[in-house]
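Now for a specimen:

…
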Amino acid sequence: MSKGVVVLGATGSIGKSARSALAALPDRFRVVGLVARNNLEELAVQAMQFHPAWTVTADPARERELANRLPPDCRSAGGMEKVLELVTSPETDIVLCAIVGTAGLEPVIAAIRAGKRIALASKEVLVLAGEIINRELAAHPESEIIPVDSEHSAIFQCLAGRRPGEIKNLYLTASGGAFREWTRAEIAAATIEDALAHPTWNMGAKVTIDSASMMNKALEMVEARHLFGVRPEQIRVLIHPQSVIHSLVELADSSLIAQLSRPDMRFAITYALTYPERAATDLPELDFAARLSLDLQLPEPGKYPALEFAREAMERGGTLPGVMNAANEVAVDRFRRGEIPFPAIWKIIEKTMAAHETRPQSDLTVIRAADSWARRYAEGVKG
């Protein structure tokens, strides 16, 4: 019997990859709901393709605009109330969460409490509220989170059947972004166009800049801590320019297990949807007829301060990881507006984290208050 899927963030890069993955398996999945905020044109195109029960804009003021774009047999709605109704509906089996920012927190918690599978692509959910999310999962063991980030999906796959005591280290691979071969002096003079010239992945501007600064990997380190329950010192990063090895797990006997595939998000999305099965797909195979080079190296010490920010955030926990994330978002926006040079992104994050009084993750009110404080503070830090 087919499973009902709700896609949160349907029009972003992950949402569009999910569209392709779901269309490839029509007998296994039916789309119950599609949710987005801004790109209503793309949202309407997906609604015409899948004919979900509900197509929702997170902005209630745009519900009428969305309704006018939909065919007569598609129902529209606006606002978080309908989103929460969708993710907890008896028709929903899987919630694919690819919402950017704090907007994914409430839907994920609601889906956990309703016993759903969450295919999680939203970094902010675990970075901001990983302790809260894990408490909710412990209280609702019928629910589960399957990671969709390619790195965490790879680790999840490599850990299958492994006992916690067998795990020595987790290695998240990183492309190195646009500045992989650049010196620190060259990075100091980097332009926005330079930072957006990613050598491997086709991503949005913010994620591409995060790749250049390695803040994407810092956020993934925090995610891995909450997903896999390891100590901060067990989470490591390797530069891997080819983006074919998506992550590695080192076991107690020092052997390594890796997951490899073409750099295509549909692999991780499909696995999160079909787990524990593996569906036959037409996804592209690795071409072993061509020479396959797999380079791995440790990041140059000191070149990427973001990795040290992540270690501090994991050690101190509480609201600090969310503050790190918020400060980064503000700093990236300021860089894109031309207000600061690229290295000032790290400076703003460092100063904001140093000024923050870390508090326990008691509830979402505390999380949101820390997020708001960090954004205000980061806006005032001189670049």
The radius of gyration is 20 Å. Residues 123-139 form the longest helix (17 residues). The longest strand covers residues 29-36.
